[in-house]
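Q: Could you write out the predicted structure for this multi-component system? I'm mainly interested in how the pieces pack against one another.
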Amino acid sequence: MDFTILLILDAIILIIATVILSYFFIKDVFKKNNKSNENLKKEKFNIKNPKNNSKK
Amino acid sequence: MDISIIDYIIIILYFIILFIIGLIVKRKVHGLNDYFLAGRRLTLPIFVATLVSTWYGGLLGVGELSFNYGLVNWLTQGFFWYLVYLFFAFFLANKIRRTNLYTIPDQLERFYDKKSRFLGSIFNFIMVTPAAYILSLGLIFNILFGWELWVSIFVVSIIMIFYTIRGGFIGVIYTDFIQFILMMVGVAMIIPIAIQKYGGFDFLVTNLPETHLTLTGGWSTQMILVWGLLAFWTLADPGFYQRCYASKDDKIPKKGILIAVGFWLLFDICTTFTGMYAAAANNAGLITAEATTSYLSIAASLLPPVFLGIFLTGLIATVMSTVDSFTFLGAMNISHDLYKNIFKPDATDKQVMNATKIGIFITAGFAIILALFFDSIVTMWYTIGTIGISALIVPILVGFFYKGKKSPIASISSMIFGSGTSVSWLIIGYLNLDQWGWPQYIAGIEPLYPGLMVSFFVFVIINFIHVRRIK
């Protein structure tokens, strides 16, 4: 294959790989933020309702 | 350089985003573990983005090498390093994560003793000095905005200090992500445009010296091997260790490094050929470029507004991501390795965090002084790498792979004599410059060889004697 085409392919693959990784990065960060928000809500709820802290 | 208003706006927008991240991210820091290691919660994509962007900081140095020597840049700055990354991924990464520590000096204390930690901290600090990268940014700003070099260096340092102090490692990770996208897109788009405007591979063949298109670039085998040995830097690189410690589990580092190698491979090909296109266009009289700033010259001649802005921001981001990480690592060295573990073991988390913030100023200050003193990025890499590697590699590798009894005295002696030999060799070389201003080393041998040899043999001999005496 012509070396010039390989060079162009290299640049295209780099951009595609960057887009894919960015997608998963954002997905992970949002998942983590949602989780920590949920935990925060639970903690606040437990502080307001101490009964929920006792084990059944 | 001819830069339009829209390009300046893109660059300024990038800095505003960094600033906003600095403001927001502080809320996410709930303790020392968050501040140092983002709570050890790095998932695979986050690990890859932060490792790829942090590790790649010397873009102008790479431009200098590929402009001056061509493909040999890929061999010395790419290929050799991939081999060491693979070794790191398969034999070290998971081991490091399992130890649940924070820094390289932590490992030295685990293998040997507190004195080894202390000495290791000093060499570690030298290795993470972001001086070469601050100089790179200073040069870029100097060209873009026309500011004096020292003004550029100070402005860059102040912005970086702001968001690093506020967010710690979490701040570094979020900004790394933005920087990761910018550096990849910025570098990838220039090659197709260069091919379209100047022509394909034939343009390079016509306008470059033959040596530029050979893998050895006309370099001596010894010189190539020394750069190959410098790739061992990876095995003692605090940035690699920090990301391994911070990953969510012990499988992520290995997978993450393997994916990162793929990114570096694609990226290195783009950067090497960009430098070569700049040299060819310069030889053909199409642009006027200097080696160190060749990327800026070729981008200004090729790219239309907006694209130029993205490329320049990518260039700045590539370096910035390394500057912030290295500065933070240097600060951790001061606060965690020296302040907390040597001088004030009863320090509270808050005191350690405050010491880290002071450490950020100290590390940045030290780097600024070095950046103003040296004038070549490549020389700075070479000098810092030679000293740091000849001190740290042997004690670290022995610690991880030698199962027998290890003597702390052997570790300390190995660090002192290894680095001492390299430094003496460097000084003698610089006292005997040739007619072109290049250092003339004893018997023409580069300083890293004797440094590593002495470090290794001193360790083996003293360890043998000391362990026998203890028995």
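A: Regarding packing and overall arrangement: Chain B touches chain A through 28 residues (CB under 8 Å).
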